[in-house]
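Fold sample X.
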Amino acid sequence: MPALKPNRRTKKTRNPRKRTLPPALKRAVRLVPTLGIGAAVVVVGAWLVISGEAGRFVDYTKHQALQMSAKAGLRVENILISGRARASRWALERAAGAQRGMPTLAFDPYRAKERLEMLAWVRAATVERRLPDTVLIHVAEREPFALWQYQGEFSLIDAEGVVVTRWKLERFWKLPLVVGEAAPKHAAEMIRLLNDHPRLNRRLKALVRVSDRRWDLRFKNGIVARLPEKNPGRALSVLARLDRREKLLDRDVIAIDLRYEDRLVVRTRAGAKAEDGKSGKRGDKSASKPSKDT
């Protein structure tokens, strides 16, 4: 009987002196290279931001991309402006930032709209960028409405009371003249009431705002008509009727006070016959009442 050979595949026994790392520590060791790379990226990124190199790199890349688009045909060749009557074309193009030959994609229609609406003559603007080569600008201009005098200076205002310009006002002298600090914001309503009485309107020199409460009408012959704070339209109708029937504004009168509902006070020059009216009728005596405002 042959002898049995010993099994050479013997089970290896662990060396009690050799120590193994815990699993958590092993995972941490494996993450060291990744964390090192991440930290390096963060440090480099922070340096780029702090030094400004990142911004310059982005700007450079953007500039190069826009130049490439322009070479490909996306450049401004046509700037079409509509709605312009008084604002200069040069001012509109400059405010919009549109230049022929610039990359079309570099033109920002939203910022152009904001800048255009900051111009004095422009009330509203619409801006479009149409690829490949066109910029469309439509403006709604402010309409001249009246001249405003305050502290010796004249300005042109629109119906909203916005100051349009203080230059070259000679062509607007036929517009109504309003006077006083608060006159612009109330002028539109009063001027529209006066437009219903063309006879008064033709003889009017200025509308004066008094204490930001009411109006005085100053006529070309020096007569002053004092209107009430409330319901000035009714007082204008009374004045227009008296002037049409009795030629009140052609008489030797200094002032006409229409602030009282129950009577009309007419102040004449010294030596002239005085008149007083109730409900628009003539009287034999003059009546005047001291006023708190002038």
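Fold sample Y, listed below.
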Amino acid sequence: MNGIVAGTFSLPDDPADHRGILSWHAQPHDKKLREAGSYGCLVEATLPAAALAAAAQAGEIILRLEVDEARSGGLAIYGERFGRYPVDPTLVFQLR
């Protein structure tokens, strides 16, 4: 966030089975399997105080999700109708 790493995660490669129940229901019902059962992992990261300070000073939040070149394979972000968890990508701010 704003140039400061908030977390690094190594996740399994494209899991797909009954846990991706939302993906089964979201795909077209045309007797072809595309992303049937695909799901990811629910990932949470706490933003470092320095990143929040940089965002406050800049007056904006820049959030970047990326895949390291050494782990080329892409990045999938699931929303409330696809994957395993019925939630959209979410940022939660707790003001103190």
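Sample Y note: The radius of gyration is 16 Å.
Also: The CA atoms of residues 56 and 86 lie 31 Å apart.
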